[in-house]
Structures are given as structure tokens and as C-alpha cells.
Specification:
The structure is a homodimer of 225-residue chains. By secondary structure, chain A is an alpha/beta fold. Chain A contains 9 helices and 8 strands. Chain A has 2 domains: 8-19 and 96-224, Rossmann fold; 22-95, DNA polymerase, domain 1 (Orthogonal Bundle). Chains A, B: InterPro entries: 2-HAD, HAD-like_sf, HAD-SF_hydro_IA, HAD_sf, PGP-like_dom2, S-2-haloacid_dehalogenase.
Chain lengths: 225, 225
């Protein structure tokens, strides 16, 4: 039962709920250095945000595929079937698991009466399946993605879309993410922001400081209680 | 003497005119793997574009510094003075040289009567010094940067700012860049776009195809003649 005045918690999915590190093995499996995973993911966000800044939109999986192609076609030592390789990496997004702190943390938040939704630049279908595999399907009331507003986070329209879908005001929602750019964007749009540190670096000074800073999702449940 | 009806050519600077590969040595000099350069630069653009997509602005050098800090503070094997290391990498931006095709290509374009300006998400002062070191100071009529519109490319406002400063219409200008996101953004804003391939990958299908595709700047002079 939702608690009166408890904020709506809007969860980012990629890296915030899902552990993306198995994608490093996917790079190894296509014959590329595993550390290319990090460059690939930064490049996918760079290109998706560039399209967003220019007022455009493209599907995450299409940008993700182009990202693998670009990396492999400019890697002089790599040879192989580039379409097959791009497909193998992107397919890995469908087989991720949640971080170890997620099941207990999410259940604790749900028990404390928070309403929970996901909002991803990826696919709401993959979010739903990820959380289903973790036995958390009944904890979230909906899974939203950037295809609704046709804008990636951190564009204001993406956060606006979430609160409209759920029927709350902007200041009744808190975005939870490991990525500072998402926390920053949510706060500029008028939501609260909870930065999930896990084992991450310091929060960048060029972005708005988070409303809440927590080490993991159990700590978030305690902080917001 | 500018030719009647010749388009204004708007040059991106980082990687388009400047060869940024010496920054790999800067990473080696601070005790980090040289390949971190690529991850750093992708992350700087990711974070700068995120701020842009969220309607905000930060100075390039500040985002660049935060990018080094974030990488080093999450690299378990790295130890050292993080501020000094960030400063050493960012200082490298002041000591770059132009790509080998730039001097002849720029002179050929100037001789053919094109008006040339630079527009960078970095610093116009660094653009000016880079081109001065290459003996090309007199080829460009001005050096512009994102601090003017308080928006990074590829936001429409950044391209609009350039044509207003120079006094041409959007469709009288062509953006020249190695980065597809810049070509795409310029074209969405109403300029032409020239994609400089050099030895780059294929152009991504999620972005608007370039008006012109050339291998280097000499080829651009021939293509536009």
C-alpha cells in the first residue's frame, strides 16, 4: 500500500539496477579486448545524448549496434563478421542480472510504502524481464522507456513523461541512478535525485549535487524511511 | 577575397583540425594506460552533451578535468596526486598540432575564396593558438566557441550562434567535422555538413547522412570547388 506523501522512486536501469560487467565477456567472445566495453558504453551514451541535444531520437539498440560497428571497424587488428559481432554484444543486454544489493534494497523500499517505477533509455521490455528474473516483478508498478517521450534522459521531456504517466507532480518524484548525468538532469527538471555510489568515483563538480547520496539500495531505504 | 555564394565553412577543432593522439602520452606520463585517452574523451563528450540535453552548460576544461578525476579515482591500481594528474592531461590540450592534411587543405580552401571560421566546444583561444602554430592564423576570420551561446554543439543554438556572429543564413554555411554527431547536428539545424573521414569508421546509420563525405581537407577543397 503506497504511503501518503512517500515520493515516487524512478529507477534508472542500465548499471543502476543491472550489472553490465558480463558485456566485457561478450567483447572477449567477439575477439576484442574486454576493456572496449567501457569505451563502447560511453560512446553509446555520447551519441544518444548528441541526438537528444540536437532534438532527435534513436532507439537504444540501434545506437548500441552502431557503437560496436564503429569500434570494430576502426580497430586495425580486428577481423571478423562485424554484423554478427555487433549482434552478439547487443544480445548481451537481454541476459543481464541485477546487482547483489538490488533484491533486498528494492523489497525494503516496497515494504516501506514507496511507489517504484523504472525509466530507461533502453527498452522497458528488457527492464521488465531483468526484474522478473530477479523475482522483483511485483515490486514495480510500471516500466517506462525513452520511446514514450521520444527523448533520452537527461532531457527534461523524459522526466516530465514519467510523472505524467504515473500521475504525480515533478517534486513528488526522486530519480535513483548511478550516473551523475541522470541525477543532474532529473534535478534540473524538478525531481529529487538520489545518487547511488556503489564503488564509483566522486560526483563531478560540473553537475548539480545530489539530493541524496547512498552507497547501495539498502542504504537508500534507510535514508528515505 | 570571399567568392560570391561560396558557403561559409565552419570548422570543428578537436580531432577535426587538431591531432589529439599526443594526449595518449599524457595518460602514460601520469601512470595510466594510454588507451584511457579514448575513454576519457568519449566520457567528456558524454557528460558535456548530457548537460546540453538537460539545458545546462559547463566549460569544456572543467568537464575534461572531472573526466580525468572520475577515471583515475575508479582505477583500483592507480595511485598519485589526482589534481596534478588531471591538470597534466588537460594542459595537453594547449600543446596539440594540426593533422598533416590541414595546412595545404586550409590554404587551398582559402585560395578558392571560402570564408573560414572555427566553432569548438573547447576554447576559441586554444583554436587560435593551434592554427597560429600551424602558420594558418590569417586563413580564419574568427574563432568561436560554446561559451558564446552557452550551449555545446550539437544543440541547434550553437550553430545558430555561428551564423549570427558571421552574418550569413543557416543554409549558407557548411559544418566540417570528423565527428558524425556534429555533422548530424549541423544538418538538423539547417546547415550543410561535410564529414571528414580521415581513417575513420563508417558513418552511423542512426544519424543524418552527410551532405559531403571527404577523406581529407585537400579533397574537401576539390569537392567544393
Amino acid at each position: 500500500m503506497p504511503r501518503q506523501n512517500a515520493p515516487l522512486l524512478v529507477f534508472d536501469v542500465n548499471e543502476t539496477l543491472s550489472d553490465m560487467s558480463p558485456l566485457q565477456s561478450r567483447f572477449a567472445e567477439i575477439g576484442a579486448p574486454p576493456h572496449l566495453f567501457h569505451l563502447w558504453f560511453a560512446g553509446v551514451l555520447r551519441d544518444g545524448f548528441a541526438l537528444t541535444a540536437a532534438g532527435a531520437f534513436s532507439d537504444f539498440s540501434a545506437v548500441a549496434r552502431e557503437g560496436v560497428r564503429a569500434l570494430l571497424s576502426s580497430a586495425p587488428e580486428w577481423s571478423g563478421d562485424i554484423e554478427q559481432a555487433a549482434g552478439h554484444v547487443v544480445d548481451g543486454l537481454s541476459h543481464l542480472e541485477v546487482h547483489p544489493d538490488v533484491p533486498d534494497g528494492i523489497r525494503a523500499l516496497r515494504e516501506r510504502g514507496f511507489r517504484l517505477v523504472t525509466m530507461t533509455n533502453g527498452s522497458s521490455d528488457l527492464s521488465k524481464r531483468l526484474l522478473g528474473r530477479a523475482g522483483l516483478a511485483d515490486c514495480f508498478e510500471s516500466h517506462l522507456d525513452a520511446s514514450g517521450p521520444q527523448r533520452w534522459k537527461p532531457a527534461q521531456a523524459a522526466y516530465q513523461y514519467v510523472v505524467e504517466q504515473v500521475g504525480v507532480r515533478l517534486d513528488e518524484a526522486v530519480l535513483v541512478a548511478v550516473h551523475p548525468w541522470d541525477v543532474d538532469g532529473a534535478q534540473r527538471a524538478g525531481l529529487g535525485g538520489a545518487w547511488l555510489r556503489r564503488d564509483a568515483a566522486d560526483y563531478p563538480q560540473v553537475m548539480l549535487p545530489p539530493t541524496y547520496t547512498v552507497g547501495n539500495l539498502r542504504e537508500l531505504a534507510e535514508t528515505l524511511a
